[in-house]
Amino acid sequence: MSTKIDETTTPAGATPADLGIGMRFSIHPHTDGFVEVILGALADAEAAGLTDGLVIETDEVSTYVGARTAPAEQRLAAYLSAVVAAASLRSGGGHVVAHVLLSRGCPGEVACDLTVTGLPSPAPVAIEPTGIHAAAHWSLYPLLDGGSDAGDHMAHIEGAIAAATARGTAASPAHYATKLTGDVADVLATAVDAWAQVGARVPHVVTHLTLSVGSPSPATN
């Protein structure tokens, strides 16, 4: 699976390198052959050309993926969708869980400047459907509000949930999270687009997902 990156649509303003745009994720296939599944899924995404423009570093806990050039959000979403889908296919449709943390605004990076101006408004991501159903618990954290709505972080969160509801991926509220359901690509695009659009107004934004495919637990809604 591949998703073509259009490098001609670079937004004006701060660059992804300025903002420290990236993610950490870990993927957990519930199978005895988890090593082969994980390594194979990562290799599949690389073979599809989806590592271009990304900095990838893996340790014993998780994998860091940094996007230094635009379209950063598209690169991250397409790569992650491909890895999750490949892990599901390589595990024969078994249970696969991914924990994902996306950050923009640079705390946690080597250098950080929250006074950066010209926050970009990225275009919505476009990810090829995977044909794999997913459920996720999703949380969004605007960590530094600015402008006329300074301090009103709930307005950003409620707006993101409303957008997810209109998109058809927001299934229900959950404790400390919103449940998303749909194709892996749609679920990830929902979270990434909300994170990016809030980031057009708030210098530091984090979003977290626990994504599950092939779960043996019955869906509750």
Describe this structure in words.
- Residues 134-217 form the Thiamin/hydroxymethyl pyrimidine-binding YkoF putative domain.
- It comes from Georgenia daeguensis.
- InterPro entries: MTH1187/YkoF-like, Thiamin/HMP-bd_put_YkoF.
- This is YkoF family thiamine/hydroxymethylpyrimidine-binding protein.
- It holds the Pfam family Ykof.
- This protein is of the alpha+beta class.
- It has a single domain (16-190, 203-213), classed as Alpha-Beta Plaits (2-Layer Sandwich).
- It has five helices and eight strands; from the N terminus they run H-E-H-E-E-H-E-E-H-E-E-H-E.
- It has helices at residues 16-19, 34-47, 72-90, 153-167, 184-198, and strands at 22-29, 54-58, 63-67, 96-104, 133-144, 170-174, 177-183, 204-213.
- The protein has an eight-stranded antiparallel β-sheet with strand order 2-3-1-4-8-5-7-6.
- Strand 6 (170-174) and strand 7 form a beta hairpin.
- Helix 2 packs across helix 3, helix 3 packs antiparallel against helix 5 and helix 4 runs antiparallel to helix 5 (184-198).
- The chain is globular.
- The two termini are 29 Å apart.
Binned, the helix content reads 25-40%
Element string (H = helix, E = strand): HEHEEHEEHEEHE
Q: Which class of secondary structure composition applies to the elements? A: alpha+beta
Biggest sheet, strands in spatial order? 2-3-1-4-8-5-7-6
From the 3D coordinates, which CATH architecture would you assign?
2-Layer Sandwich
Proportion of residues in β-strands: 25-35%
Give the CA-based shape. Answer: globular
What is the residue-averaged pLDDT?
86
Tally of alpha and pi helices? 5
CATH class: Alpha Beta
User: What's the domain count?
Assistant: 1
Rg over alpha carbons: 17 Å
Number of strands: 8
Predict the CATH topology. Alpha-Beta Plaits
N- to C-terminal distance? 29 Å
What characterizes the major β-sheet? 8 strands, antiparallel
InterPro entries: MTH1187/YkoF-like, Thiamin/HMP-bd_put_YkoF
Pfam families: Ykof (PF07615)
Protein name: YkoF family thiamine/hydroxymethylpyrimidine-binding protein
Domain Thiamin/hydroxymethyl pyrimidine-binding YkoF putative: 134-217
